[in-house]
Amino acid sequence: MKVVKAAAAALVAVMLLTTPVWAAEKEASNVQVNSGPEVIVQDETAGQLLSKKVELSQAQQKVLEKIYECVPELKELALESVHDEGDITWGVTFSDRNGAVEPGIHYAHAYLHFDKDTGQLMSMNIHNPEWASEQLPATDLAKEKAAAFAQKLLGDKMNNYRMGSVGYGGGGTADEKGNMIYWANANVQFKRLINGVPFMNSGFQVSVDVAGHITMYYSQGFHKNIDGVRDVEPELGVFPDPCLAVTKEEAEKAFAEQLEMKLSYVGQQPLKDSMFNREKVETRPVLMYSPSYPSCSVPIDAMTGKPLDGLRGRLPLTSPVKLAGEGKKLAAGTPEEVASLLAAETGIDMSGMKSGSVEEREDRFDPGVKVKEYNWMSEPQTGPDGKPDFSTMRYLHVTTLADTGQVVNFNLQDQSGRGEQAAISLEAARKTALRFMQKHLKKGACELEMSIYSTYEENIPDWVDRSKLEGYEQRPEFHFYFTRTHQGIPVSDSSYSVTVDGLTGKITSFVDVNSASSVTLPDSKNIVTAEAAKAEYLKSKTLNLVYLWPEYYNQKAPKPYLIYIPENAASLEYIDAFTGKMVIVERD
């Protein structure tokens, strides 16, 4: 049965548990500041539309004049408000809504934040519906426009930075009527140089759309700034001397020795990489080799020439399982039926939770498939100070296929119990997850690969001061990931995830991503060996020398590392198991 690809997004929470703590690439955040409707007037001295309530100091006006030179399109918008954001930053908002009460998705708006001491731009987000496009920009265009913008913004300071990898992203926004606007962009990274070596923790990102507009700028460290903590300039003496590093050839040998290639099927492998995939994309079944996590991402210590295993999170425990599916359907067609079904099948307590609106729409990632989305939430309790206490609220989100009512995703988020120790064992949680899967799998024998992901507590690095994690604690949960197998090989797009609550022992989340179940998969005979696949993979990989200072929720490791890491691939790629050749999926 084909299940919406949107459900796969819910797997992110599981996969994030395995993200290495040394991964320094950070996605820019949309920081929005709400401001009420303003009366717009013309300020001829500034040459810019201003709100009556907006008052800028001379220093702020000078900063904005510099930004207008870098982004002339901002002059076409009205400066609505200026915000004092404490001792570290100040911000401004722009839009073209001209006093409209509801901003809506068809108004252009921009948010910018600056360092108070230096006037340096810290972040910028521009959303203009006239720029909306699902088409990705060419890599060369993105690099050219990003470099030109950065040069204007930083001037001679650009000598301290080097352009790094180019990634791709996008997003969308909807109004209450379901109208959607999508945009796609290339994200160009610039890393600060220390001793002539890129420092992965310091730099900035520039996002460019298909027409060459600058849509976003993000200076790494901004989140610390808005939290009221200013970044401290690192002492250069603590960084290892690159002259003492092992050679790239030695590092490449160490990387190759620890690299492992894993065999897997993909039932519906797209022939083109489409960002939004709202139109049918041609697919085909594929048997591929790809690097097993984390062998492709473990860095090589440039001072010793050995893998730095200690910088990654714990690996998932993977094992084959055989279940006899009982075929009990998980389906409902109304909010009342959904609530009753989940209470009966999972024991989720929905008392005190109110049902929200039910939305029926076409799935954003799987054209032609309509889904229904249901939401519930509890009311906040009154805290000791008489104000609403949101720390014990519960939220439930459920997605079903509109035509059959099949539940493809549900997730209960309980804000209480953060920081508490699990009351049940991993083995008890495993049995609960297996029982749930067996009950709801299609009737008959089913072979699966089960992965058990480490908990939040298990992934905290040894050097972290746990007493300083207040506010970042998580409710204890056990995450299980089940992948169907064919001829003993996992089928990556035929999978399920199950979350078991560590306090109640009940199922709180389920995701069904099973798009490959009706596809005829190729026989795994006559394929190349894993060693041959590894040799082909290594041909296209270049190791780069970089500095990395591991961080965890605003805490830094005792020292930075000088490491070799493989350059990020600009496109989706894999080794065809039959030809042994690298396949690069063309971007649409």
Question: Which SSEs are present, and which pair or pack?
Answer:
Elements: H1 12-15, E1 40-43, E2 48-51, H2 58-70, E3 78-85, E4 89-95, E5 109-115, E6 121-127, H3 139-154, E7 161-174, E8 180-194, E9 197-208, E10 214-219, H4 222-226, H5 248-258, E11 261-270, E12 272-273, E13 283-291, E14 300-301, E15 317-325, H6 335-346, E16 353-355, E17 359-362, E18 370-378, E19 381-382, E20 388-389, E21 394-401, E22 407-414, H7 426-440, E23 444-453, E24 477-486, E25 489-501, E26 507-514, H8 530-539, E27 543-548, E28 551-552, E29 555-556, E30 561-566, E31 573-576, E32 582-584, E33 586-587
Parallel strand pairs: 12-33
Antiparallel strand pairs: 1-2, 3-4, 4-5, 5-6, 6-10, 7-8, 8-9, 9-10, 11-13, 13-31, 14-30, 15-23, 16-18, 17-18, 18-21, 19-20, 21-22, 22-26, 23-24, 24-25, 25-26, 27-30, 28-29, 31-32
Helix pairs in contact: 2-3
Throw out a few tags for this protein.
33 strands, 10-stranded antiparallel β-sheet, about 600 residues, mainly beta
Biggest sheet descriptor: 10 strands, antiparallel
Strands, total number: 33
Averaged pLDDT: 85
Question: Structural class from helices and strands?
Answer: mainly beta
Radius of gyration from the alpha-carbon trace, in angstroms: 26 Å
Domain module count: 3
Rough outline: globular
- In the predicted model, the low-confidence regions spanning at least 5 consecutive residues are 1-52
Query: β content, as a range?
Result: 35-45%
How far do the termini sit from each other?
Answer: 27 Å
Number of helices: 8
Helix content: 10-25%
